[in-house]
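Hi everyone,

Forwarding the result from last night's run.
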Amino acid sequence: MRIVAALGGNALLRRGEPAEAATQRRNVDEAVRSLADLAADHELVVTHGNGPQVGLLALQAEAYREVGPYPLDVLGAESEGMIGYLIEQRLENELPGRDVATLLTQTLVDPEDPAFRRPTKPIGPVYPGHEARRLAAERGWVVAPDGEGVRRVVPSPDPIGIVELRTIRRLVEAGVLVICAGGGGIPVVVDEEGGLRGVEAVIDKDLAASLLARLLAADLFLMLTDVPAVLREWPGPAARPIRRARPAVLRAMAFAAGSMGPKVEAACRFVEATGRRAAIGALGDVRAILDGEAGTLVIPA
């Protein structure tokens, strides 16, 4: 079975953890154990988030004032290479003899996408409100609430194509375990002369992974996060897991725009386009999710 597995941000940094290399390595070790178990029996393509890492790189770039800050597409490429390296190395250790490759991936977006006029994608660390307001004033950021704190938000246009799709497909068909489209991929547009040009944005990793899964004709699209399932009536004491649902049922519900909302939308898009299944669940429950004993399964109508 061909599976596209999208790792949530918790694969590298959990909320409140310091953005240190040792912390990220430790979390990757835990994530890869679950992925290696999948890869033993299935054709696997891995994607991942990069929000905290892109934000950290942006802060580091601003600390050196001798050159102008690097744009988000370049920072996205840097983070995709960094995170891919950590995951790739650990997978190679867990699966000796298995070919593993990280591919920097460019994701096409529409330059007229309204998201460029309405930033919504959180990146970087969570700040206390007063500090976020100060940084926004100093650096011209747009900020928005995130849990009990505030984060920087940037444009998040809808993905419409994967530039390296043919290369990814060839690698997968050759038996390579591919890590690609990290952080949603590097956002690019086609310019007036037909060339590619990076843009100042971050693409939602789940929507990009859903597009990748559709284009690769995956049998299952799997989103692994830090919650056991999609929850009905969350937050609150009446919250309970949704074990199985069709896209129409999920679309009639409201989910948090910055967390579960994109995952549900990504799952619905995949199922509606392919007639195959998508699943959302906890990273440590991979086998149980595949067996239908954990997580949320999104099924065709």
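The chain has a mean pLDDT of 89.

Cheers,
N.
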